[in-house]
Design a protein that fits this description.
Length: 705
């Protein structure tokens, strides 16, 4: 009995302890749920909820004539939450009712799956209750808009489960044109204007509350929790698309012809300092050329174009006059243990300083600088400082590199430094600094800072304007500027001068200077005979409008390497086009004829056109139909007639009359690559309207005002 009683006592005790344990667990669970529930639920939400940034729409970069140089185009990534409450209500009745018609519309829109294929995809996701199924990436804005009208999707996110995440891609409508100057807009790498004005272009980032679901995927919680982003501002540059295109084509032609390593060309407006074009082209491994580096703001040995700075110092200090005589020693002159050579053994001795400059004599410049500044080189460097040759230009681009000028007292200074510097060796300045110097001479001694951005605007309203900035009212006296102008005109117009053959038949006068410099090739030094050809000048000389600088680094042992035969022709091509388009008959070109608003004809997006017509209170007769997205506009009896412009995904549309933005949008939406020439509205297209589209085909559009 005692044994039995002992066993029962132990069993009862165990039973009682188990009951107490269960009661404690239930009590704790009740306490956690009812008393601490709010705290633990908030902690759970804090781990599952996350506020993420919503990128603002980036501003657009325009040319001065209103052409888009860089813009953002929206794209959408589409996801489906098959477990959303509205979609699964009543055993999925809503989904089952619309899945067939939705699959048909998706098949018709994207054309990559049959109706049965899309139905199978949707049913499989619904069956597996996938929470954030990645349905389709990189959906265009046009396709996204079409999807909003599809069965089920048009009921909204909470019922359909369809979620769209918008993102922007950056596009350059003119592709390579001024690409390095305009820049890239990537998450981790930006250059050019995109980097310099990034804070203005990117706008203000918004906020969105997201919930983390299975697999670590974030899904939006509610639109009510969003903080809307503020779009970035637009910048309008001084670049002119026509001038940029002319400049880039002229440079490209010479680089290809001479198989050069790289080159740059700058066009600067004389009176304002505006950069109208800046082309930077480098050779790729496959032999093609692209805008791979901004050579215009990278210092290198300038060669003989620097002789203008030397001549300015000598004239300003009244050390010389252009009519004085200098002995060229037949083309060679000994300085210490080194010899200065002219580029050609011309055999000339006694010539005027004007002629020495016209012949681009290294000996002449070296002898003059040694005679007048050899004992006091600091006086020469004071002039270089006044010319801003030892400082950055301050152009509104990041990445400009500092010039290199060896000064007395430096460990690199020697007895030959000064004479070699006089003709552009032993120092490094950028092509943009050369342009700034020559532009100052064209302005009679007034130096302007070169700049690229003209205005900053927000929703079409100008909020900031950048005006020309004078760095120095006078880098030299007026008489000195006049003599320098005379020397530059002679270097292009006097028989026997380095630029005479190049410009002897042109209808305008050029003031400029050729340059040829033997440059080092890394550790190989000067053994490979690599020459840098340059030409700097302005025109028309009697009333300067544009300053142009061209610098080209040639391949080793190039057959053509003189500035007059490599860089000079590029200058001439650019100047010829600018003269006929902007300079010749300027009064006629700049006069604005009265436009007749009763005789208009163009095409465009219906919403844009109708909004404009409404704002201007213009009478409209809409014959396009409610479903029309693109329209043509013509006038009849002072009333604008709107007719539908047919656009088919498989056929080339009628692009005549469209602006560049709309034309590029339509072409890229159907898979065409666009090449553009001219400016204004489309007047012709290389692919006929109605032609069957093949993805990747190139279409050439010609634009005219």
């Amino acid at each position: 009995m005692d044994v039995k009683r002992d066993i029962l006592w132990r069993v009862y005790l165990t039973y009682i302890l188990m009951i107490i344990g269960v009661l404690v667990i239930l009590g704790k669970a009740f306490y956690i749920q009812q008393v601490e529930g709010k705290y633990w639920r908030s902690l759970s939400d804090s781990l599952r909820l996350k506020v993420v940034d919503i990128e603002a729409e980036r501003g657009t970069i325009y040319s001065e004539d209103g052409q888009m140089l860089s813009t953002s185009i929206p794209q959408f990534d589409i996801y489906i939450d098959f477990n959303t409450e509205g979609l699964r209500a009543k055993n999925g009745q809503l989904f089952r009712t619309h899945v067939d018609s939705l699959a048909w519309h998706l098949s018709k829109l994207f054309k990559d799956e049959s109706q049965a294929g899309y139905k199978r995809i949707l049913q499989d996701g619904f069956k597996k209750k996938l929470r954030y199924y990645s349905f389709r990436k990189k959906v265009s804005y046009r396709d996204y808009q079409a999807m909003q009208e599809f069965p089920l999707i048009r009921m909204g996110r909470n019922k359909s489960g369809f979620i769209a995440e918008e993102r922007s891609i950056r596009k350059n409508p003119y592709e390579m044109l001024a690409f390095r100057t305009i820049g890239l807009a990537r998450d981790t790498f930006k250059v050019g204007l995109e980097m310099k004005y990034d804070s203005i272009l990117k706008g203000v980032t918004g906020k969105r509350l997201m919930r983390k679901i299975a697999g670590g995927v974030l899904v939006p919680v509610s639109d009510q929790n969003d903080v809307e982003p503020q779009s970035g501002k637009d910048i309008i540059t001084n670049l002119d698309v026509f001038i940029q295109e002319v400049t880039e084509n002229a440079l490209m032609d010479m680089l290809v012809q001479n198989q050069a390593e790289h080159g740059c060309a700058i066009v600067m407006e004389v009176k304002s300092g505006k950069i109208k074009a800046i082309a930077n082209l480098g050779r790729n491994r496959d032999g093609s050329y692209s805008e791979n580096f901004n050579y215009a703001i990278n210092p290198s040995e300038p060669g003989s174009t620097f002789k203008l700075a030397t001549l300015m110092a000598l004239l300003e200090d009244r050390k010389i006059d252009l009519t004085q005589v200098v002995n060229l020693e037949g083309g060679s002159w000994q300085v210490g243990n080194r010899t200065v050579f002219d580029s050609e053994r011309h055999g000339k001795n006694e010539v005027t300083i004007q002629q020495a400059f016209e012949f681009s004599s290294n000996v002449g410049m070296a002898k003059l600088i040694s005679k007048h500044y050899g004992r006091q080189p600091s006086a020469y460097f004071q002039h270089l400082h006044r010319m801003r040759m030892d400082t950055l230009t301050g152009i509104d681009l990041l990445g400009e590199r500092s010039p290199l000028i060896i000064k007395p007292g430096s460990k690199f200074w020697s007895g030959t430094t000064l004479p070699w510097m006089s003709f552009g060796y032993g120092l490094k300045i950028s092509p943009l600094q050369t342009a700034m110097l020559y532009n100052a001479v064209a302005n009679g001694g007034k130096m302007l800072r070169p700049y690229l951005v003209n205005t900053i605007s927000e929703e079409g309203i100008v909020i900031s304007t950048i005006t020309p900035q004078v760095i120095s009212e006078k880098i030299c006296s007026k008489p000195t500027a006049e003599k320098l102008h005379q020397a530059l005109v002679g270097a292009c117009g006097s028989p026997g001068s380095t630029g005479y053959q190049l410009f002897k038949n042109v209808p305008y006068t050029v003031a400029g200077k050729t340059g040829t410099a033997l440059v080092a090739d890394g550790v190989r030094g000067y053994a490979d005979k690599i020459y840098q050809s340059s030409f700097a000048g302005y025109f028309p000389a009697e009333n300067p409008q544009y300053t142009i600088v061209v610098v080209i680094k040639n391949k080793p042992q190039a057959a053509l390497f003189y500035g007059a035969s490599v860089a000079g022709p590029v200058f001439k091509k650019i100047a010829d086009r600018l003269y006929t388009s902007y300079v010749f008959g300027t009064a006629k070109a700049t006069s604005i004829s009265k436009l007749d608003s009763n005789q208009i004809s163009f095409s465009g997006h219906k919403d844009d056109v109708t909004t404009l017509m409404r704002k201007l209170s213009l009478p409209v007769a809409d014959q396009s139909g409610a479903a029309a997205e693109w329209i043509t506009v013509q006038t009849l009896n002072k009333k604008s007639l709107l007719n539908r412009l047919s656009v088919n995904q498989n056929q080339v549309p009628i692009l005549k009359g469209l602006g560049l933005k709309d034309a590029i949008y339509l072409c890229e939406e159907i898979g065409l690559q666009v090449k553009v020439s001219g400016r204004g509205k489309v007047v012709s297209q290389s692919l006929d309207p109605g032609t069957t589209v093949k993805k990747g085909n190139i279409i050439q559009l010609t634009l005219q005002p």
